[in-house]
## 1
Amino acid sequence: MKRILFSMFIILAFSIVRGQTQDKGNNSKIKTTGFKVEGMTCRGCVAHVESSPDKVDGITEKQVSLKEGKAEIKYDPAKTDEQEIEAALKSTGYKISRIENKPNNK
Ligand SMILES: [Cu+2]
């Protein structure tokens, strides 16, 4: 039993290290975009909005806030763009509007 746990731990540690190395290669290109999301009322809505960009290739991170009515999406501009992400979010039926990038938001 101990041996199984130990080998599982090794596999897990290995995949974490691999994930980190892969991230480093892409980080410089990753862009962030923000959207205002109106009409979300519960965690189910959040989950719905959050899962909608899954069909878009190149999304690296998604954060949807119910309290703020916002969605923040990180993406690889080589694979997708804001229009595509916006369209995916809009497919949920909630009112989506793009938040213009502030000058200090790099
Ligand atoms: Cu809901």
## 2
Amino acid sequence: MNSNKIIIFLMLLVLPSLVFAERPSNVGLNERVIQLEYEVNTLQQQVSVLMSRLDNSDLDFDGFTVAMGDCNDADASIFPGAVEILGDGVDNDCDGVIDNVTSGTQVGQQSPDFSLPDTLGNTRGLYDELTKSAGVVLYFTIWSPINDVHVSHMRAEVMPNFPEISFFLVDYVTGSVIDSRTAQLSNGFADIETLVDIDQAVFNLYEASMGTTAVIDSTGIVRMNEDYKDGTKLTDVLTNLN
Ligand SMILES: [Ca+2]
Ligand SMILES: [Ca+2]
Ligand SMILES: [Ca+2]
């Protein structure tokens, strides 16, 4: 074997190890990349499963999930359709706008205007009355004994404390101004102004029932809309009006 043959022989010995020295690392890298891609995909799938579970869970138990539009699933007072509370800096009803007022007759909403005849035949408009008083109270009556108890209590215990408030009975059953005036007088409430809701428009507007008491503040915001009960709530609401 001459020196050339020796060199070629040595090269044949060394060359494969040089070639294969590269290949295992390439193969390893590719496998690693494939493995990583698989792991990333798996993680992405797990994250999206978790996110969808979060979107579909009701963590504050208010009946609304994030997927249903709950914009704060850690606060049960915040959900789509909740009453927007003015001035708290929170989008309570999840409509995307903070402290905006919606029109309606639920507490916190801006009451639509309405007008009704009173039992003396004058037309009385809500917002017209609000320009003349610090607020309006509507009490829905059918002149029943329960109404008698409520109104007698309201006259004795509430009205004297709030002279700047306009109190109205709303007669939604009598059906005519003349008959309503008769009922008002025979029940002994001549001193409390009475509105005649002949077609029950305001009764329906306020989604009222017998004894419902509504308070509308001077800006037209509904501050109470519920049964009179013992009058405590009415006094509380009127005390905190402004
Ligand atoms: Ca919720
Ligand atoms: Ca809002
Ligand atoms: Ca708010």
## 3
Amino acid sequence: MVENHRQLTLKVSEIFYSVQGEASRVGLPTVFVRLTGCPLRCTWCDTAYAFTGGETQTIGQVLYEVAKHPTHHVCVSGGEPLAQKNCLPLLTALCDDGCDVSLETSGALDISAVDPRVSRIMDLKAPDSGEVGRNRLANLAHLTHRDELKIVIASRGDYEWAKEQLREHALTDKCPVLFSPVAGQLEPRQLAEWILTDGLPVRFQVQLHKILWGNMKGK
Ligand code: SF4
């Protein structure tokens, strides 16, 4: 990283150490860097507290905080982290520091400039999110097997929509695809049974951190 990139600033909602609750790194001790702000308003959003507020920190300060924890797994999340332009040099700086970096992103913003060492966990917003119109379909062409695509499903209608996206865009040829139920809106078992009945080549997941800690901030 160019040394003066360490002076660039970001609005940071929180930095915390927990167990990764989703995707292929599930269960791994991980440091989370949650950036402030998001241009979307998903109906089922569970991190609305990150829309505003937070503390201005330099990239150097973030690296220092991250390095205090005994793991090299780092997840940059939000909000929508890519809404801050200095997210890109932050990701590169974390990679340069030897971290295994994942990025959780809404899929509404351009992912093409993300450092290729980063694993992008990208959402495809289903209709019940209220944000289906924000999906930036051009992002799909940039996904590789380092990345993962997550569809959060609130209803049978969302499920049918997700199945259609799998077919239309050959999503499982691009990267692993995750189907996740909206907590409190769709029974996890129901979604698992639909996937089994249809034999879909997707990974069913529930959010491990919510099983362990409920919807507690900083966990
Ligand atoms: S993109 Fe993520 S942070 Fe933004 S509203 Fe949707 S769920 Fe919440």
